[in-house]
Amino acid sequence: MASDLLGIGTSGVLAHQKLLQTTSNNIVNVNSQGYTRERTLIYTNAIGFGTGESMSERVINQYAQGELRRDTSAFSASSMRFEQLSTVDSLLGDTSNSVGTAITAYFKGFHTANESPADLGSRNTTLTGLGSMVNRFHTLSSQFDKQSDVINDRIDDETLQVNSLLSNINEINKAIVRTQGTGEENLMLYDQRDNAIAQLSQKMDIRTVTQPNGSVLVNMSSGHSLVLDGSVAQFSVIPGDPDSRDKELQLNLGKNQAKIDNKVLGGGLGGLFSARRDLEPTKRELGQLAISLSDAMNQQNRLGMDLDNELGGDLFSLPSSEGLPFAKNTGSGEAMVNFVPGKGSEVTALDYEVSFSSATGFEVFSIGSDGKRSSIATGSTPPASFEVPGHGISIDLSGTPAAGDKILLQPTKQAAAGIEKLINRAEDLALASPLKADKNSQNLGSGIISLGTIGNTGAGSGFANNNLDPNAPQVVKVDDSGNYEVYGADGTTLIGVAPASSKGQNLMAALESPLGGPKVYADPGQSPGYEFSITGQVQANDSFTLSYNKNGFSDNANGLALAELQNKDLVRKSSSSTSGNDKMTFNEAYTGLVVGVGNKTSQANTEMLANKGKLEQSNEIFESVSGVSLDEEAGNLIRFQQAYAASAQVVSTAKTIFDTLLSSVR
Known about the structure:
Flagellar hook-associated protein 1; single chain; alpha+beta; 11 helices; 29 strands; 4 domains
């Protein structure tokens, strides 16, 4: 009992010695990672005088600490997302990778070739531009794939670090439970655990619950348990289903397994998944642009004639892609998706899913970038091949699916990497029109025949074997009433008559048989595949002829049409509807792709800066309580030193008094 003077002084010396030790420990650990300021509480003696028990504790505000962890997670997520998106943004901003620049150069080559359509040199320039554009599509698509691989590799690395941190937290929990309340208890264990939890909060958004035994439970913000009393969960990276490259996270706790929704992860891991979700639509938009451009060029080249006096062929190949079956499928159903020639402007940047209600019944859904599914077609097999209306794709089904089976289709994801040029000769560029129109030199009138659009040179048209079919419209005669009689190649086989009231405009659409009867051609753009008009004053017995444009090497009519494709709205907008403004040009599509990534990058940067400011504020609040202030500790050091010296003086005074008492009785 410290009721005597010596006991009082001794208790004071010991108490202030401990206070000095705590202050000294704070000072030397001012720069230690994860260190939390400590303080020692001294209590008065419950009985008598002097100090009683003392207790050392960490100075911490649990609310401020939790807020700091949440802000750390938010900043890490936005920072990681911005880091990945800025890489893609820089890639698209590099002119050496710009598909838009290659498209512009390609069409510029057509303008050059149109100036001298018979010149192989100018044609070769266009052919080189074609190859360069294809290579640019391939390169950019490859760069997108590499960035996806980088993100997947980072996901692997971050997952390994998360597992290590979880195991570390669990081990520290055990050490704290084992030593709490004993002489082996060490506050540094709590600092080490908090530091590990702080690092974990950089990886994902977490919540903690402190237990009475000193351990801490760690949960995901979604509620999944990560660290329990005596047990710890581990993450594993698993292939995506059905696309194995879209890696996913699985949480393993004992024998229990759960696939984690990456949208609720938060932290650096969540930022990586978010960046990957942002990048995926860009791949598909690039593929959509590649298909729309390739198909438009193919269709237009088919409507012209090359330097070999043959109808033009395809300039590009349109790739196919195999469907990806889901892991839970029980049947053997397979699917192949193809692009429908001539319908490239209907192609979207969406994925599709074929869902089977039975072995023959199916439903097709489109899948938006937000994962929302919309039913667009239903049917049954046979037939095994069908076209999806309004989407520019056809699907081939095979095998034997079972009810509940699903197959994912990704037609545009790798389309930019799949297109190839099909011509290696400059002569194969079909710059000339396959038709030429002439008036009879003996005509009395001033009428002039001019070609309109050529819509079809293939099946069902008036073209056959690189020539005009003899039964196709080739001769026009004006009768005594001013009507326009159209004959076959022999000039005597009447096909039909266009009334004088048509004034010679769009004669194929106006053609009737007999005069005043039904139309000869329901769709002249398909059959006979071309249209023409006669302008000016015509006289009875005037005649005009249409013929295959052999040796029309100086003709650039189709070359002009090919060049004009650059200015036509041929790419479907992502938000397209049934309104008239649902298409855009090739350059607008690529600009939209670049701007889209730029906007996401800018938004990620803004979010990161905002989260950074919030994190700095939270850190300041936390440090104001738990951080070491050298000024404060220096003041405490002087104060405790003085108290220690005063306590020692009390002991010295007690000794003097005791010695005086002893000497007085000698």
